[in-house]
Design goal:
alpha/beta, Rossmann fold, pyruvate-formate lyase- activating enzyme, 6-stranded parallel β-sheet, 12 helices
């Protein structure tokens, strides 16, 4: 049965643009007012022009309320752009309870505790979208979100932060509260998140992650090739023993999913053998291997354009990516394709 909606909002990543197009056709054919925002719309708004009645570029804590006031009066702009990065006190606790039992149709619950990352990896669009300064949500609000989802039956929650320990001070305070909260439950909730390898240098954080019932972590290891790490400005992985750090994290019973990238300028055809050996020695249970790709707005994206090394990539490719929009420097495209 079709429902009548006054307003429909869509958000998504660049890999989901095909689904966004399909939903756009459905809702606009019904005459619904359609708004689209999110990371992909923010970095490549030109792809979404014509798909919606209104676009939101950037974070929407300020622009969304402004739009609603105008829309209720029967008028609105076509584009709302938020330039200032809002503090997350302005991000309200979502009304998860409105989903009712439908929330259990999802693989897990989700909470964002922070935005931004202090690091500056060339291929990463997080600094471009969210900035370098980590902005954190009030811990009481985080606990409210967990509790609402828990009471709905959710038992696995993904902290979707791009770097959960971007602000170590905040992470320590939050983890301390999570340990107390989870231990108070009759049935525990399992957490997982994304963070950086320097967590291995903070044993108290590793201990609290384990005590708070984090079942797994995603860490971007990328490559054992130090020259490639320096090239891409992933300096936090350059001056350490990566394998030792991985084993340290795993020693706390934390299962790792790790991002692995091939195709950096300093990679040669033998990198594929090196990566295989690295994965065997590190014992990372779930390596996610991607080809280097230049996301719009990143420093890598600008550099590839300056150097004339940008290809038309597959905007709807999944993960792991089987295509790339970058012309490799350390090997021919034929070598690259054969090896991958």
């Amino acid at each position: 049965m079709q429902r009548g909606y006054d307003l429909v909002g869509l958000s998504g990543f660049s890999s989901q643009i095909g689904r966004v197009r399909a939903l756009s056709q459905i809702f606009r054919a019904r005459g619904n007012t359609l708004a689209i925002g999110g990371p992909a719309c923010s970095t490549t708004p030109e792809l979404y022009v014509g798909l919606a009645d209104v676009l939101f570029i950037g974070e929407a804590e300020y622009t969304w309320p402004a739009f609603l006031k105008e829309w209720e009066k029967g008028t609105h702009r076509k584009i709302y752009r938020q330039v200032i990065k809002p503090e997350l006190e302005a991000s309200r606790v979502p009304a998860w309870e409105l989903m009712g039992p439908d929330v259990l149709r999802y693989v897990c619950g989700a909470i964002q505790t922070a935005r931004g990352c202090p690091f500056d990896c060339e291929f990463c669009d997080v600094p471009y979208i969210f900035g370098h300064r980590p902005r954190t949500k009030p811990i009481d609000d985080v606990l409210k979100e967990i509790d609402i989802q828990y009471k709905l039956g959710v038992r696995r929650i993904f902290f979707v932060d791009d770097n959960f320990i971007g602000d170590l001070r905040y992470a320590r305070k939050l983890l301390k509260e999570l340990v107390v909260y989870d231990n108070s439950l009759p049935q525990p909730v399992y957490f997982f998140t994304q963070l950086t390898l320097n967590v291995a240098k903070n044993e108290d954080v590793l201990e609290m992650l384990a005590d708070a019932n984090f079942s797994s972590l995603f860490i971007g290891v990328e490559t054992p090739n130090i020259d490639s790490l320096k090239e891409t400005k992933k300096l936090q992985n350059c001056y350490t023993d990566i394998i030792s750090d991985v084993h340290k994290v795993e020693s706390y019973g934390l299962s790792l999913t790790s991002g692995i990238i091939v195709g950096f300028d300093h990679d040669r055809p033998e990198i594929f053998t090196e990566q295989f050996g690295f994965m065997q020695e590190s014992s990372i249970p779930l390596p996610v291997v991607n080809l280097l790709a230049a996301q719009p707005g990143t420093r890598l994206w600008y550099r590839m354009q300056r150097e004339g090394r940008m290809l038309a990539g597959d905007e709807e490719s999944g993960v792991p990516k089987s295509t790339t929009n970058v012309v490799p420097r350390g090997m021919s495209r034929v070598e690259f394709s054969r090896a991958t």
